[in-house]
Structure formats: C-alpha cells, structure tokens
Design brief:
By secondary structure, the chain is of the alpha/beta class. The chain is built from 7 helices and 4 strands, in the order E-H-E-E-E-H-H-H-H-H-H. It has a 4-stranded mixed β-sheet, sandwiched between helices. It starts with a strand and ends with a helix.
Length: 196
C-alpha cells in the first residue's frame, strides 16, 4: 500500500513513524532522493492502513506492506522517488508474489478518510513497469457500483467511492458520475482479472 507522508521532509516523517506515541508506522520510507529506508521488517505488522478494507478483507495492516513516500501531498513526486519506489516495489512484489493488482493506494481502501498518495502520484508510470494497474483503453459502459465492487473498493456512499476511484484512475475529473468513469472502471475490472 502506497502513502504520502503528508510531511515536509524525511526527518519529520521518520520521527513520527518511529514515535510509539504516534501509533503509526510503515515498513518503508522513500526519501526525496529515492532512497528506501526500512522501518519495520516486512514480516511484521506495521500500523499504516487504519480503518478500511480491500476486496472484502478488513485488518489491512495484517496483510499488507506499507510504503510511505516523502511528500506533503501538494506537489508531484520526484523522478528519483519514483525510480527508488519502482525498485523497492519490484523487489517486494517478487518476495511476496504480489501482482500489479495487489498494489493499491491508501485512498483505495479508505474512501473518504484518506487521499494518499493523491492525484499527483504517477500510477501510469508504475503500470508501464508492471508494478500497478492502469488501463490502456477504456472498457464498455457498465454500472459503476458493480465495477468498483469487483475491483475491490469497500462499501461507501456512491459519491465517496467515485472520488476514491477518481483519485487513482481519473485524478482531475470533477462533478457527478460520467460515462468516462464507468468505462474506465470496466477496463480496470478487465485488467485486474488478468493480473491476478
């Protein structure tokens, strides 16, 4: 699961992620220069997900690897960060036999509660490297709720689920549900099934 730290620099993020009183942690921290720093062994539970679910499974902390990327949430991620993240993700995916459909953002499993890694995160770049999902072309016009269920989004108010889906797959879309949302979601269903 990918996060942004919401903090200005790596030192501040590290301090918070390593502070027992904060009751938050992650397995990895990716610095602005792309260097990954191990904070919690991958075979141990880190407290990065919080309330939410993915593909009908709750307690996401017990079944995921949390990667925090240093970014306050208001700017693009650096090329060095994306390079470092790609190396880290590729290694972790190989170790744990995780396919691209298993790489999600915090906002995917916690609609309405979390927005990270946010609209500036380059999911398409990861998808080109086989490290995440991104459809090359849209699919047929199918009911959005049905597609979001099949992708794995948890139950929530339809507008909240739409916003979470858009953060990932149509980050600059606004307003009520559109045909483009339904067609993009149908395409994600198709590629997710192929990638599992």
């Amino acid at each position: 699961m990918l996060h942004y730290t919401g903090m200005i620099d790596a030192a501040s993020a590290r301090e918070r992620l390593c502070d027992p009183a904060a009751q938050v942690s992650a397995h990895w921290l990716v610095d602005e220069d792309g260097r990954p720093e191990a904070l919690v062994p991958e075979d141990r539970r880190a407290w990065h997900a919080g309330a939410g679910s993915w593909q009908g499974r709750e307690d996401v902390n017990s079944r995921s690897i949390g990667i925090e990327i240093v970014n306050p949430g208001d700017r693009p991620f650096t090329a060095a960060q994306m390079d470092g993240l790609a190396r880290l993700l590729g290694d972790a995916m190989a170790r744990w036999r995780i396919g691209p459909a298993g790489v999600i953002g915090h906002s995917d499993m916690a609609p309405g509660r979390k927005n990270d890694p946010g609209p500036r995160f380059d999911w398409q770049r990861l998808a080109r490297q086989g490290l995440a999902l991104w459809p090359v072309q849209d699919g047929p016009d199918r009911p959005l709720a049905e597609s979001l269920d099949r992708i794995g989004y948890p139950p929530a108010d339809p507008a909240i689920r739409l916003a979470a889906f858009r953060l990932r797959f149509r980050p600059w879309a606004r307003g009520p549900e559109q045909r483009a949302d339904r067609c993009r979601a149908a395409a994600v269903v198709r590629i997710a099934a192929d990638a599992r």
